[in-house]
User: Fold this.
Amino acid sequence: MKITVLTLFPEMFNDFLSTSIVGRSISRGLAEVEFVQIRDFAHDRYRHVDDSPFGGGAGMVMKVQPVLDALNSVKQENSYTLLMSPAGTAFSQKKAHEYARKDHLIFLCGHYEGLDHRIEKYADECVSIGDYVLTGGELPAMVIMDSVIRLLRGSITEGSTEEESHENGLLEYPQYTQPADYNGDKVPDILLSGNHAKIREWRILQSLLLTREKRPDLFAKHVLSKEEEKILKKYEKEQNEK
Ligand code: ADE
Assistant:
């Protein structure tokens, strides 16, 4: 996959792109990342990329011409352009899977008060990473790149993404590692039992209970499978009998 980032601050990405799973995936050639400095497309003497908003108001707005010239310098037939904006549609694990299938992703990162609205129609999607405002689109672009790159085949162990939080609309069950007893705080016995069927059942139940408690919005949307329904009913029956 090719990734192009249009930004005024490419240096923000340095450590991110060379560290951990993302760094390894790039050095293995699973993703190739290039940067376009939007300021290189500003032609006035002071290389201005922003100006004050029409109608007044605080802050600066990024100008159409340098941004669109930067975009047009990299856009190809197979490109998919994502404009980072707090006013975009919500990013999700489902979208991460969608983007992971693209040949060429372009991340358009605004800064300051945002981009001139006329730019939006040149993007395939406006995406937000949450209901809060950041100083620019660079962190959102890194968030999305991270979640997309780790889904590329060969990035992390096959199968290890399947049971994660949000993959099936639920939060993941709790995980534990050594030691089995940390100052009296013990790992649930079932996980030490070696009984894989029982462990699987326990994990499904924990995932359901955790989601119901912490993310009732997700739980309400989730359609229980036959197996999940059976496990939850059994648990509730046991609770009632206590
Ligand atoms: N730019 C500023 N805030 C943002 C957000 N929450 N998501 C995407 N882009 C942004």
Q: What stands out?
A: The domain at 2-149 is CATH 3.40.1280.10 (Alpha/beta knot). The chain has a mean pLDDT of 96.
